[in-house]
Amino acid sequence: MRIKSIQLQKVGPFEDQRIDFPGKTDEGAEIHVLVGENGSGKSTVIYGLAAHFGSNELSNKEWANSNLTVPGILKSSTTLSYSSGEELGLSLSWSLDEKLYQKYVNRHSCVPFGVFGYMGTQRLTDKSKVDLNPTEDRPLDKSLFPHNSSFSSELASWVAQTISKSAISARKGDKSAEAKYENEIKLVESTLSSILNEPFRFGFSEEPWSVWAEFRGQQLEFYALPEGLKAILSWLGDLLLRITRVDWENKDLAPHEQNLLVFLDEIDNHLHPAWQRRILPALKKLLPNSQIFVATHSPLVVGSIDGAWIHVLDIVDGLAIPREPFISEDGLSYPAIYASVFGIEDYFGIGAEAKLDEFREMRMQTLKGEKPLESLQALADELSEESREMKSIVNTELRQVERRLAKAS
Asked: Which letter, b or e, does each residue of 126-145 get, where b requires 16 or more Cβ atoms within 10 Å of its Cβ?
């Protein structure tokens, strides 16, 4: 299962636009990164794609009517209608037959693929309570942008249950089951450790029953973790918990190797730049047979990975216009990404850039004889106080002006 394209008609900033999603170019997950200024339709694309699988987040957009519904998600072309009768067109193209999609929608057992979506606003906020009695297992229910205020307890209970299952399997002599449950825990721990670039693991105690995180030499309740780590754990933990509980049709693949569609809306929120740079490389390796769609404002996310498709959305006369997608390169410098992808060519803050523009305008006036060299030198001295980098730039340009004036005289 993979999405080939989406056609958006009168949806958000899109009048009538088709966005194609080319296939992956190397090993690992197929990743599509949507970038653009605020209001350019990044999240609209994410929620438009998810609407075909039952998500109602599109109806929560400020521009959409609250009665917006998805009446026919079994169709590859879906029309969303306002209560007023005005229609919004969403047409999705996929490499999938109807019977396979029907099997996913019914999803009682032998699931052929999974669809998941997360926002960067999700957090672990509550104190966790361990329950060793598993609830009814429906891991694909509410898998698109869940708003789960009790996930801390769900995560803690899953860790306790999985460790207990591993111990029981070991006592029974079932090495295969023991390894399976151990690997599920290690998968979460190792993925988080790779993003954080430092060790992360779960701690567990049976008297009383409790689960915590071991991070930076401390034992912490989930709600007490740093905000960025809570953000990552809230969506990545939920995803990995769900896929380990699904009854997959393909029994030869591990849960993280299954065919997944993953929609991520600005999951880099609250993350330190170093962590932003490691999210996509970790996901590409972790989910090798997945198609992942990411909306972001972060140049660090865009420049963090080779082989992802970058989709830039521009605003032209108030409407979103997609550029031709291009392949990301982790060898591209961040200043180049700022300029080519985000349209920002400035190197300094707004105030410093304004002074630098003033300096360069005065430089031209000085060369023309309209301003005295002393005025330019005074402005160069003022700018040199901004930073060593600024001092190097203006002094270099000032020396060039002095040499040209000396040669002219």
From this structure: eebebeeeeeeeebbeebbb
Tell me how far the alpha carbon of residue 270 is from its chain's centroid: 12
* Spatial distance between the Cα atoms of 14 and 45, rounded to a whole number of angstroms: 10
- The answer to whether 107 and 245 are in contact (CB under 8 A) is no
Where exactly are the structural domains of the chain? Answer: 122-258, 350-408
pTM (predicted TM-score): 0.82
Say if residues 40 and 313 touch (Cβ distance below 8 Å).
yes
Reference 139, options 3, 34, 258; nearest CA is 258
Please give the structure tokens belonging to residue 327: 């392949």
CA-closest candidate to residue 119, choices 238, 257, 275, 4: 238
Q: How confident is the model over 313-354, as pLDDT tens digits?
A: 999 999 999 999 999 987 778 778 888 888 887 778 888 889
Tokens of 250: 């393909």
- Please, are residues 272 and 228 in contact by the beta-carbon 8 Å criterion? yes
Strands (DSSP E) found in 26-111: 30-36, 77-81, 87-94
Nearest to 189 by CA among 129, 152, 240: 240
Q: Left if phi > 0, otherwise alpha if psi is -120 to 50, otherwise beta: which for 394? A: alpha
pLDDT in tens, 36-46: 999 899 998 99
